[in-house]
Amino acid sequence: xxxxxxxxxxxxxxxxxxxxxxxxxxxxxxxxxxxxxxxxxxxxxxxxxxxxxxxxxxxxxxxxxxxxxxxxxxxxxxxxxxxxxxxxxxxxxxxxxxxxxxxxxxxxxxxxxxxxxxxxxxxxxxxxxxxxxxxxxxxxxxxxxxxxxxxxxxxxxxxxxxxxxxxxxxxxxxxxxxxxxxxxxxxxxxxxxxxxxxxxxxxxxxxxxxxxxxxxxxxxxxxxxxxxxxxxxxxxxxxxxxxxxxxxxxxxx
Length: 253
What we know:
Layout: H1 3-15, H2 21-28, H3 45-49, E1 55-56, H4 62-74, E2 80-82, H5 86-95, E3 99-102, E4 107-110, E5 121-126, H6 132-144, E6 148-152, H7 160-164, H8 167-172, E7 175-180, H9 186-191, E8 198-202, H10 214-221, E9 228-230, H11 236-252
Helix pairs in contact: 1-2, 6-11
């Protein structure tokens, strides 16, 4: 349920005598953002951007994450917390039984099946099995942001037939997220085969001269194939967010 629906439902409940004025005020005071001293959640972001706030979990302690989950639960918002260690998740699970940990992606959500909000399909491809965690971050993020998502992993250009066999699937997608390390060539090859927009995700996978993903990032930025946008190194979530914005625009046409 988004913010506008929550407000409308609470006003109706108040008018019908189902809740007290105090409860209505308690809900409304969280908008446009919660006024807690150390955690200020942006509950109006979905109104502005069409996508609710996603929490970056790395660097936050368990106490902070507990407060965030409790507040999001209270307002019945969707929960996506990225970059959470399994150790922190196990602490949180003791307090919130309805949590789900997507281990390879390092993402915490509520234990519910995500709703598909957009008709456009996101196809996630990874060059190598070593890119799995970044690809899974993109996959889980894209699903819980409301997309219809498919994935195909370990299809790097060292065996070009693996890419060529996916031509029809490239054309049927509305957005392709291409995850690759090493020299980061895969998005360029895919872009030469399809008119579908591509979001390149460079990963830190590779040998020494890969410079922890810098070579893949620069290669994608310098692609001779048009139609490629590029996010930061290992940023699977950022690619999923961009793909969601594209699908959102398509849906509104």
